[in-house]
Amino acid sequence: MNLPTPEFRPRRLRRSEAVRRAVRETVLEPRNLILPLFACPGTGIAREVPSMPGVFQQSVDTLLETARQAHAARLGGVILFGLPASKDAVGSGAWDEAGPVQEALRRIKRDLPDLLTIADVCMCEYTDHGHCGILEGGHVVNDPSLDLLAKAAISLADAGADIIAPSDMMDGRVAAIRFALDEAGHEEVPILSYAVKYASAFYGPFRDAAGSTPQTGDRKGYQMDPANVREALKEAAEDLAEGADMLMVKPALAYMDVIRAVKELTDRPLAAYNVSGEYAMVKAAARAGWIDERRIVLELLTGLRRAGADLILTYHALEAAAWLAES
Ligand code: PBG
User: Fold this and answer.
1) Atom 5 of ligand 1, nearest CA residue
2) Cβ contacts of residue 24 below 8 Å, gap of 6+?
3) Average pLDDT over all residues of the chain
4) Using CA of residue 14, residue 16, residue 17, residue 21, what is the dihedral sign?
5) Does 190 sit behind a cis peptide bond, omega within 30 degrees of 0 on the bond before it?
6) Is residue 87 annotated as part of the catalytic site, yes or no?
């Protein structure tokens, strides 16, 4: 048989690691990765979250050690979440100057001044009902919640946060926070908006980590319907118009098309949040010996970069950075 030989031989550029590396399109570096940290009151505390092996609730002293590792690994930065000593209906712990996140921010600024710190702004970790704003008659009321978010944002910027990242999904919160930050003299502090945040089952383990499960109902009245992408573009455009400096899509893995769509909408830096449930699934399968964790994690993170994420918030950050340093 005289079969035709192929005219184009793409395999020529796959023949060796040297040529593959030379023509590789997408780069994954430690600076693309942001490590989430959970700050709690006390000293000497590092409580592992059962559904998130390798992730800890930490008092400020032990959290600082992890921040040091993030710095040494040359990660892009850290994002801080808080577990307050007590909760109330309006989440007043969110703007407590002595809160664990505020304290952690001050310590990181003092000891590791060039480690980038992002402060998550939301009420769900601080309210006794676990919702992301003020609850009235079972409903999260939008506009009154904006004042609280703005207060929290100012407090976190006062404590030294380099970037403010609202994750609550109230309408108009970027404008409200921008206005409040400017009035407080923080006009140079950027806002990374969780512009596109879906009502997702993938947040389950995080709610254990942050103790932020809603006591009644769910978050579908403010977080987005997973079925929607046109709405994501509208959310993104609105947040840009309100003054967001960077945008985020969350979760990441089931939403790569959304990451790509938002990337094509704007030149602003884009982040993707590789959330707790995504992490837990990889960890569980790796522990069972069913997958090659290192290759899976690097492939997932590279995929998110290829989809359009400049930054990836991920609990894999330290391990991934170590693997990247070896390769
Ligand atoms: C707060 C917030 C959540 C996450 C980040 N910020 C949880 C939620 O909305 O319930 C989830 C992060 C993760 O799952 O890793 N609103």
Assistant:
1) 167
2) none
3) 96
4) negative
5) no
6) no
Two tokens at 299?
Answer: 């492939």
By DSSP bridging, strand 246-250 and strand 192-197 are parallel
In a 13 Å sphere around the CA of 61, the CA atoms on its Cβ side amount to 4
Cβ neighbours for 183, distance < 8 A, ≥ 6 positions apart: none
Query: Can you give the pLDDT at residue 208?
Result: 85
**191, β-bridge pairs:** 164
**CA distance linking residue 185 with residue 181, whole number of Å:** 6
Is ligand 1 within 6 A of the CB of residue 167? Answer: yes
Residue 212 is predicted with a pLDDT of 85
Q: What is the pTM of this model?
A: 0.96
Percent of the chain with pLDDT over 90: 95
Can you tell me which atom of ligand 1 is nearest the CA of 214? 10
Atom from ligand 1 closest to the CA of residue 274:
15
Catalytic: 197?
A: yes
* Topology, domain 28-247: TIM Barrel (3.20.20)
DSSP assignment of 64-128 equals HHHHHHHHHTT-SEEEEEE--S--BTT-GGGG-TTSHHHHHHHHHHHH-TTS-EEEEE-STTTBT
The segments of the chain whose pLDDT lies below 50 read: none
| E strand or H helix that includes residue 278 | helix 276-287
What does the block give as tokens for 323? 């693997």
pLDDT of residue 149: 97
- Atom of ligand 1 at shortest distance to CA of 169? 16
Which of 151, 250, 263, 283 is catalytic? The answer is 250
